[in-house]
Design a protein that fits this description.
By secondary structure, this protein is α+β, with helices and mostly antiparallel strands. It has four helices and five strands, in the order βααβββαβα. It has a single domain, classed as Gcn5-related N-acetyltransferase (GNAT) (Aminopeptidase). Helices cover 32% and strands 27% of the residues. Strands 1-2-3-4-5 form a five-stranded mixed β-sheet, with helices on both faces. Helix 1 packs across helix 2. The protein is globular, with a radius of gyration of 15 Å. It binds coenzyme A. The site of coenzyme A has 18 residues, from strand 4, helix 3 and helix 4. The site of coenzyme A (COA) has 18 residues, from strand 4, helix 3 and helix 4.
Length: 146
Amino acid sequence: MQTRPIAPADIPLLAPIFVDVFNAAPWHDGWTLEVAIERLDVLAANPNFRGFAIWEESTPLGFVMGARERWSDGWFFFLREMCVARSRQGEGIGRRLMEATCDELREEGISSINLQTGAAAPAHQFYAKLGFSEMPLITMGRLLNP
Ligand SMILES: CC(C)(COP(=O)(O)OP(=O)(O)OC[C@H]1O[C@@H](n2cnc3c(N)ncnc32)[C@H](O)[C@@H]1OP(=O)(O)O)[C@@H](O)C(=O)NCCC(=O)NCCS
């Protein structure tokens, strides 16, 4: 298994993992492959994009995508998407991918990772096990065409 930075040409290979994961429970998001590729392409077009995928030979097993952001005292990484192929979850791949991502970002001088996840989401426990702690923030949204 090898973790390496995501190149634009990887996105069509990674998007099926994303679709399969987030169209399943508990999300049932309803992604088409085309729209998922659009989302991931847009993330990757950010000039501060950082993304890493974990591969077993030529098969992608999971990925992390986000962007580095400036803060008053340095740079942090805002993690926007993370998933591991459903058939390979629970094997330690997510931990390995996150540790490799942390190593790469640390080397670059990035001092922390922030992310949003549902309080009741399965990933909440995963992130807690990997040393993430809760921040006193909430996400707010407003429909523009209610
Ligand atoms: C969350 C996710 C990335 C974790 O990857 P993974 O490869 O399945 O996780 P690992 O096998 O590396 O697990 C690492 C640790 O987290 C724990 N963990 C993983 N998923 C868990 C869950 N749903 N509930 C409780 N603990 C969990 C494991 O037990 C393991 O603990 P251990 O090291 O003490 O044994 C993956 O399951 C996934 O893609 N889930 C669906 C998508 C998702 O939730 N993405 C994040 C949205 S914000």
